[in-house]
């Protein structure tokens, strides 16, 4: 273990750390922002820097180290002046990211995950960065680059080798397009900033309006927004710092989703206005946006929108000149953790802790941010709430279906001619969506992300609605050329990377399921392994602490039922195959003894030696 | 004190306001398997061994068949007891689930009981015996983990850590020292010590601290005190872990 | 199994072996003491250190294996047992999770051999005679190499545990041990 003796902290580093600490008033609840800002200055968080931060915040050092160690985008070892992270969603894979990354690594003389010997660069992968409509994508020092090609790889390698600062790279590399393909009530709202606020009635009337509109949470769970606000409004804050809070969940991490990116890029006013409406209703003075670390590139623009709103009296003290209507918004950045999309993990993260989902009860509406009543809402929900405030409940309720009022924004990616953002009234069929985006020969859609539902052609008549297929908006299309087993395997790997590790079933079960999928992928799987997969999926679903673990096996369960041949064609004819490759288990001994005689190998014959060849089926467990 | 009750495997269990299902059950002498729950601490809910089903229903279908609709599954240590609810614990499904969870822990770490000082009084081992776990079933991780012998009185063997966080909680809440914490996440989650070197010897842990005496498995060991009780006379040689469940009943002052 | 037929009087054929183990489980087997006389009424021993028969007959009923899998020969023996035995039993800690031999898994086998076979001033000479089975990169429990039907834990399992386990099995019952007999050490 390295760094037993401290490598010391230089005066420059110390100054940088102190400046960040002062800017945040030595407030321990701001640890996440402090770590990010220090790292942006120093490129990594050395043991001495962590000690300095802990001392400055009067926190146990191990707690600071534990937070730094939790998030993918914080590093406690140097990962180079340029850190390249390829987005590794299945849509990036389909667009060829693996070959491109291999090309980049080869040109940089690097293995994935390693840092170059001169400490210049490291190349690795990260979970979906929300650029599925313009992939393959990557992050360089947490700034997104889209539409990667071999040519672009070569040019970027050149820029890195020449140590060109990121600010001087061609600006078109960093271009992120909205790709809005279909607008409906929300995206074609015709509102000006402040319209919703000017239409506000009393808080109770607004609760009634939101309830009457039938608005339900757009993150996927579908809880009634009006009810949530009503509970939160009724809850009483505790202690000397009693307060209510509005939190906007912009930790859009579900693979295949990118609608919040577009809403925040082009409809930020509407989102902030929705937060302000929520603040007015529940009696909050402060709103927090939890923006996923992958969307760091939006931060300056969003802060500018906030400034403009303050200048226009739409934010701050006495909003619209109304005494006592005080509300302001601050943006917090995440640091690469899908689990923080779970609202209680998000609150932990906002408080500067490891993003581990809380125990419930209590629920955030009564005990949320800093233990105070908190309304946590999705970006799209808040924008929709602003729309309802401006245009009325009846108008909104008339859109969509009886049980799902309003519209849903879908993020469409994968095998279609026109990937991008599509807004539909609830009730649209999968078939209609596929026709609109120009999908052909579709064999499956993964709706609602890695944790969602895999829909086969026989189900394309089903509807996007809470009563049929609920979704946060991810809609990935797979044509007949795709291998649905590998789609599921990609998702299983995603959950291994993103499990927080709190509970046994998810921490261990996701890895065990990955091992089963990898074994099958390598051609060593049998019926025994399929039975194991089911057993792991049952355990995940029944016993996991939060939705991440409970749904982590869905992709395997769905594809095992609907695309079983994609598994079976890989299975060995025998029901049991060793857990590891026998012949390669002798590799080290062959190396050190120089032996290569028949006795130094297990020949393929052993795999066929057991009786009962061809026997399939039957529970082997 | 209490006049409300719920049903655990059809047996009526009284509970006091604010008690969780496991707390009430253990106080009433009914054992529910657990590892991260500890009578002196607030429930944690991470090991999931205490998972129960709540309010399963039996319905009769149109063709006269009775079908059981399973109730929701929840960790009984963190779920508040509610009057009249029906809780299932000793069912085939839940016993199988618990065996699977124990097997997951057994393959995640390196649990070699014959060479472990904690053998015979290890909660993971005792629970595995009680559940009839005969094998780890899944492929072993064979994780490469360290041993930290830097402290004068305490040895840390991370190979056996089940991440129950009892030492973390004890050090923070009882000892007020914050000697232990967690870093990493998912399958890289691991215990860390509160020092820049990362070594236990550079922390202010004392052998008398609660944190040094709360580990349910063989991670936090007292030097010079191994294998003191002969085989056959150790805790789980004498009685199964599920015996005398009230020994796990919550003590009044939980931190 | 045909439930209506009366149990045949045929004795069951049992094979045993020790792979990467210490023979402690076999020693413990002998701790069933005089009950072995009852046992031989029910079973015949095929390949076993007790009989010194070198290979399994093709129609063994029970294969009882002590020890984990640490080298190529272990794999071949285990395959022979799986091929010839209807029921395979992993006996003891090493067979079940690799046990003490698996504690080398935290080290790289190349480093271990380099340390063991280093001769002062004469470099490292790791034996490479084809007669010597190669070691696997890691030691594995039996069920990672072949399908195992039953597990009998203990280091070693006591004579009483072995007796209970075998009498259950021979009577056609799924073996259970219960408190006092189930042990991992």
TrEMBL record, chain A:
The UniProt record lists the keyword Iron: yes
Keywords: 4Fe-4S, Iron, Iron-sulfur, Metal-binding
Domain NADH-ubiquinone oxidoreductase 51kDa subunit iron-sulphur binding per the UniProt entry, residue ranges: 485-530
SMART domains: NADH_4Fe-4S (SM00928)
Cofactor(s) demanded: FMN; [4Fe-4S] cluster
PANTHER family: NADH-QUINONE OXIDOREDUCTASE SUBUNIT F
Protein name per UniProt: NADP oxidoreductase
From TrEMBL, chain B:
Cofactors: [4Fe-4S] cluster
InterPro entries per UniProt: 2Fe-2S_ferredoxin-like_sf (IPR036010), 2Fe-2S_ferredoxin-type (IPR001041), NAD-red_Hydgase_HoxS_gsu (IPR016214), NADH_UbQ_OxRdtase_75kDa_su_CS (IPR000283), NADH_UbQ_OxRdtase_Gsu_4Fe4S-bd (IPR019574)
All copies of domain 2Fe-2S ferredoxin-type, residue ranges: 1-93
Protein name, per record: NADP oxidoreductase
Source organism per UniProt: Paramagnetospirillum kuznetsovii
GO cellular component: membrane
Keyword Nucleotide-binding annotated: no
UniProt keyword list: 4Fe-4S, Iron, Iron-sulfur, Metal-binding
CDD domains attached to this UniProt entry: fer2
Keyword Iron-sulfur: yes
Location of the 4Fe-4S His(Cys)3-ligated-type domain: 93-132
Gene Ontology molecular function terms on file: 4 iron, 4 sulfur cluster binding; metal ion binding; NADH dehydrogenase (ubiquinone) activity; oxidoreductase activity
One Pfam family recorded for the sequence: Fer4_15
Family from the record: Belongs to the complex I 75 kDa subunit family.
GO biological process, any: ATP synthesis coupled electron transport
From TrEMBL, chain C:
Keywords of this entry: 3Fe-4S, Cell membrane, Iron, Iron-sulfur, Membrane, Metal-binding, Oxidoreductase
Domain NADH:ubiquinone oxidoreductase-like 20kDa subunit: from-to ranges: 22-168
Cofactor(s) needed by this chain: [3Fe-4S] cluster
TM spans (from-to): none
Domain of life from the UniProt record: Bacteria
GO molecular function, a single term: metal ion binding
Protein name according to UniProt: NADP oxidoreductase
């Amino acid at each position: 273990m390295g760094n037993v003796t401290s490598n010391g902290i230089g005066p420059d580093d110390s100054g940088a750390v102190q400046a960040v600490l002062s800017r945040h008033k030595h407030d321990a609840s701001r640890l996440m922002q402090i770590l990010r800002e220090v790292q942006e200055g120093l490129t990594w968080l050395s043991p001495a820097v962590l000690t300095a931060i802990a001392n400055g915040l009067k926190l146990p050092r191990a707690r600071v180290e534990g937070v730094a160690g939790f998030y993918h985008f914080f590093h406690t070892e140097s990962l180079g002046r340029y850190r390249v992270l390829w987005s590794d969603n299945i849509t990036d894979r389909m667009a060829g990211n693996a070959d491109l990354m291999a090309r980049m690594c080869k040109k940089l003389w690097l293995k994935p995950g390693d840092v170059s010997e001169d400490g210049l660069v490291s190349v690795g992968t990260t979970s979906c960065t929300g650029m599925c409509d313009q992939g393959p994508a990557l992050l360089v020092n947490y700034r997104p680059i889209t539409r990667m090609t071999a040519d672009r790889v070569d040019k970027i390698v050149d820029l890195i080798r020449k140590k060109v600062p990121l600010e001087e790279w061609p600006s078109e590399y960093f271009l992120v397009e909205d790709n809005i393909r279909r607008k409906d009530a929300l995206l074609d709202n015709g509102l000006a900033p402040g319209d919703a606020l000017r239409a506000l009635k009393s808080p109770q009337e607004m609760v009634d309006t939101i309830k009457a509109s039938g608005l339900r949470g757009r993150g996927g769970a579908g809880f009634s927004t009006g009810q949530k606000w009503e509970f939160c409004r009724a809850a009483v804050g505790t202690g000397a710092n009693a307060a209510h809070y509005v939190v906007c969940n912009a930790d859009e991490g579900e693979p295949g989703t990118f609608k919040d990116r577009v809403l925040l890029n082009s409809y930020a006013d509407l989102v902030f206005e929705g937060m302000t409406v929520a603040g007015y209703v529940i009696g909050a003075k402060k709103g927090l946006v939890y923006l996923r670390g992958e969307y760091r590139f939006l931060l300056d623009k969003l802060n500018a929108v906030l400034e403009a709103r303050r200048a226009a009296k739409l934010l701050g003290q006495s909003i619209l000149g109304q005494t006592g209507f005080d509300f302001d918004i601050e943006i917090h950045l995440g640091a690469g953790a899908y689990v923080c999309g779970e609202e209680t993990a998000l609150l932990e993260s906002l408080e500067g802790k490891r993003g581990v989902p809380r125990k419930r009860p209590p629920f955030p509406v009564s005990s949320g941010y800093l233990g105070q009543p908190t309304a946590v809402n999705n970006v799209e929900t808040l924008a929709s709430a602003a729309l309802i405030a401006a245009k009325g409940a009846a108008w909104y309720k008339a859109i969509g279906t009886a049980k799902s009022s309003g519209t849903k924004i879908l993020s469409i990616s994968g095998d279609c001619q026109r990937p991008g953002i599509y807004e539909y009234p609830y009730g649209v069929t999968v078939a209609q969506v596929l026709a609109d985006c120009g999908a052909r020969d579709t064999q499956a859609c993964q709706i609602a992300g890695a944790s969602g539902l895999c829909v086969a052609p026989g189900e394309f008549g089903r509807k996007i609605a809470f009563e049929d297929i609920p979704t946060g908006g991810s809609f990935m299309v797979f044509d007949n050329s795709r291998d649905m087993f590998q789609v599921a395997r990609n998702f299983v790997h995603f959950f291994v990377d993103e499990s927080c590790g709190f509970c046994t079933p998810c921490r261990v079960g996701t890895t065990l399921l990955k091992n089963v999928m990898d074994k099958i992928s390598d051609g060593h799987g049998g019926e025994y392994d399929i039975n194991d997969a089911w057993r792991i999926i049952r355990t995940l679903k029944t016993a996991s602490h939060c939705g991440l673990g409970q749904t982590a096996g869905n992709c395997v369960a769905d594809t095992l039922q609907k695309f079983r041949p994609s598994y079976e064609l890989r299975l060995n004819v025998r029901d049991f195959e060793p857990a590891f490759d026998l012949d390669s288990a002798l590799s080290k001994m062959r190396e050190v003894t120089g032996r290569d005689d028949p006795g130094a190998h297990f020949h393929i014959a052993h795999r066929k030696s057991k009786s009962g060849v061809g026997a399939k089926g039957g529970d082997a467990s | 004190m209490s006049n409300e009750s719920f049903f655990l495997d059809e047996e009526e269990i009284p509970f006091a306001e604010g008690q969780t299902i496991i707390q009430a059950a253990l106080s009433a002498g009914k054992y529910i398997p657990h590892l991260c729950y500890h009578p002196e601490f607030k429930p944690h809910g991470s090991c999931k061994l205490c998972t129960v089903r709540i309010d399963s229903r039996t319905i009769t279908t149109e063709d006269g068949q009775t079908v059981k609709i399973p109730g929701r599954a929840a960790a009984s240590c963190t779920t508040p007891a509610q009057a009249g609810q029906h809780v299932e614990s000793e069912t085939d499904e839940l016993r199988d689930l618990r065996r699977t969870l124990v097997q997951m822990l057994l393959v995640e770490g390196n649990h070699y009981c014959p060479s472990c000082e904690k053998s015979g009084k290890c909660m993971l081992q005792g629970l595995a015996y009680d559940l009839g776990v005969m094998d780890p079933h899944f492929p072993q991780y064979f994780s490469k983990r360290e041993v930290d012998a830097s402290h004068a009185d305490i040895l840390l063997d991370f190979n056996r850590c089940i991440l129950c966080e009892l030492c973390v909680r004890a050090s923070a809440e009882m000892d007020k020292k914050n000697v232990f914490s967690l870093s990493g996440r998912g399958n890289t989650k691991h215990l860390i010590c509160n020092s820049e070197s990362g070594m236990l010897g550079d922390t202010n842990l004392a052998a008398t601290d609660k944190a040094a005496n709360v580990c349910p498995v063989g991670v936090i060991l007292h030097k010079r005190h191994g294998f003191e009780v002969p085989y056959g006379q150790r805790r789980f040689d004498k009685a199964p872990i599920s015996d005398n469940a009230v020994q796990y009943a919550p003590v009044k002052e939980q931190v | 199994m045909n439930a209506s037929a009366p149990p045949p009087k045929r004795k069951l054929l049992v094979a045993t072996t020790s792979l990467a183990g210490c023979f402690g489980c076999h020693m413990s087997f002998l701790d069933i003491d005089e009950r072995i006389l009852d046992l031989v009424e029910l079973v015949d021993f095929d390949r076993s250190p007790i009989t010194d028969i070198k290979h399994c007959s093709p129609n063994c009923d029970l294969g009882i294996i002590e020890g984990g899998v640490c080298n190529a020969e272990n794999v071949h023996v285990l395959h022979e047992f799986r091929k010839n035995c209807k029921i395979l039993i992993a006996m003891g800690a090493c067979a079940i999770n690799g046990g003490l031999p698996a504690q080398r898994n935290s080290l790289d086998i190349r480093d271990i051999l380099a340390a063991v076979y280093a001769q002062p001033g004469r470099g490292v000479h790791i034996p490479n005679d084809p007669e010597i089975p190669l070691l696997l990169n890691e030691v594995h429990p039996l069920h990672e190499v072949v399908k195992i039907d039953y597990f009998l834990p203990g280091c070693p399992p006591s004579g009483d545990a072995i007796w209970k386990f075998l009498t259950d099995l021979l009577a056609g019952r799924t073996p259970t041990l219960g408190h006092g007999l189930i042990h991992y050490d």
